[in-house]
Amino acid sequence: MKYLIQMNDDTVEIMQTVGTATVEQCIAKWHVSKQSRILSHASIDSSMIPTDRTFRNAWSWNGTEIVHNMPKCREIHRAKLRELRRPLFAENDLAIRDAQIDGDSVKLSAAVARRNALRDVTADPRIDAAQTPEELKTILPEVLK
Fold this sequence. Notes:
Blueprint: E1 2-7, E2 12-16, H1 23-28, H2 32-35, E3 38-43, E4 59-61, E5 66-68, H3 70-102, H4 105-119, H5 125-129, H6 133-137
Antiparallel strand pairs: 1-2, 1-3, 4-5
Helix pairs in contact: 3-4
């Protein structure tokens, strides 16, 4: 059986019991710090659980269904963009160094502009304007493509 565990930080967790174990027995195995964050638990039909887990850590319970907490979705998306840009920063740092060594001001200006664009990916106004998780998932600044 599957259970929705409502946490005190407005998130939910989904737990599936195995065999004859009760939800209480399963929760008792969790670390005490996690147990202390539980507000409530109830059985839930699998059809009520979103199949797209992209923003799983932003799920919330509104009393009748699992919904996405959009501010949390936005932060998850920003974290994903940060991960995508990490190797590009390293690559661009080499381009800056090479342009400085070669004394090529055109290449240096282009590399500095790219570095600034990489820094700004999390400030993309489309992130804050997104109203749904689906809309948010489509946002990928050009510099990351």
